[in-house]
Amino acid sequence: MADVVRVVVLLAVGIVTIGWLGSLFRADTVVEPAAVDYAAIAATAQDAAGFELVVPADLPDGWRATSARWHPDEQRWHLGLLTAEDQYVGLEQLPAGVSEARTAYAPDATEAGSVTVGGRTWMRLVDEDTRAVTLLREWRSSTVLVNGSAPEPALEGFARLVTASPPS
Q1: DSSP bridge partners of 126
Q2: What is the CATH class of 38-164?
């Protein structure tokens, strides 16, 4: 029985040693999300949309668009960005009323006043559990939401950048 215990211990030590040695030579690679050309995607989507898409004319230094999608069946526009500090900012737009958009994208958030950004008033929603902020406003025949993990000033700064129609 003692021989069996010794063999098991030696095998365990060998496996741990091999794992440790392997970790010394493993490269921890950081995969950066690829930037997308949101303007081109928005221009194509605008032709299919039944409403005027909202897009930023420009992005702040260090920001990059990592996702841009038009969902034709649902008539939804999505734009996902990373700030210079790698915080997420998302824009969602759909041809629905404020109530429906709020239910779809911020169901657990409660209204926490409003904020005026770039001369436009945005409803401010806060999720009490996560403290995540969502800015929401009607835009002609659609509703626009700006949310994400970025701090509220970054969300407001992004909301200031969005304008109607894709940039040229």
Answers
A1: 110, 133
A2: alpha beta
